[in-house]
User: Fold this.
Amino acid sequence: MEEYSFVAPSTIILLVVLSLGAIQGIVYAALIFWRRKAGDQAPLFLVALLLMLSYRLGVEILQLFGLGRYDFWYHVLNDCNWIYGPLLFLFVSGWMKPDFRLSWRHWPVLLPVAVEFVISNFVRTQNFYWDGTRESLSWAGFWGYVIWMNYPTKYLIASGLIIYYCLRSEKLLTARRAEPEVAWIWRVVRIFRWYFTVVLVVMLGDFLVDFDSSFETFYYFFTKYYYYPFLVGIAVLTYWLGIEALGRIAARPGRERVPGAADDTVLALAGRLDQLMREEEPFRDPELTLAALAERLEVKPYLVSKCLNEVVGNRFNDYINQWRLRAWKQALTPDNLERYTMVSLAYSAGFNSKASFHRAVQKFTGTTPGKVKQQLLENLRD
Assistant:
């Protein structure tokens, strides 16, 4: 009579949840990649983050099927836990700076990924020398294996890196966190930071309680009560991140290049223009003209006009007023509102009249300055 192995219902549920998270991560990554604007690097980092989270879930799914434990897959499926934080930070950097380009200057951000790759491969190669005795391994090989494979070391460091890069991301987002196109990223970063803070505290607390300093017994993190709930949380985060991002990536006003419309000179000018607006804020001049802006960029006015039309997709007045409106929103802090009126802050942002200010708010937000102020202050309190 043929025998069948029994699979616990909890294992089946776990497989379903992890599989859904992994599949959804891959699907959303593909859709975001397809819908991204040409020349916009930010979505690519988000795609990579979703794929790496799906990869982590996929590794665990294989292990539930008995694959990846001291076999061929064990050596192929490398650890990539330290990449989540850097990818999230690079995504935020790219989102906040449309002209962002990954370069050699960002190598410190990706350094942890290289370090993890080297350590992981060193530890995994110890299997080729292990004969069941401690003496078969070098001191570094034995303790490297124990600390890396038996202790939650890689996950503690991964959680710490995510928290660190979330804090760095929040600094980039703080000034504009109430804006709709930024508020969702602020929410994602905060949720990631809170979740991995809980993970870090639980893992570290359990390790400190159960750690045997005499080393007569070893600590095995993959047998702990928190191990699978932690992975379920990763699956939920992966699914939720994809949902949050998909529609907003498609709606993001990027610098999409129309074939044959914008040449390299105009594309380069778009980056210089964006940098000028961010760093020198010429829009605060209420008398700013197209000719004056072109003079600051040291180009002909028609090139600036061509850049706005073909790359930015905006007219000069609308482009400038959008920058002024953004500066006005950033100035709506409780301290400023105690000392200044909304209109005076609008004048400081570059609007030359109350009427032009109200028209710009209505045009670009669809509501009144008072309601914009109320919404921003509510978001700040949250």
Notes: The first helix runs from residue 9 to 35. The domain at 256-313 is CATH 1.10.10 (Arc Repressor Mutant, subunit A). The chain has three domains: 9-251, 256-313, 322-382. The radius of gyration is 26 Å.
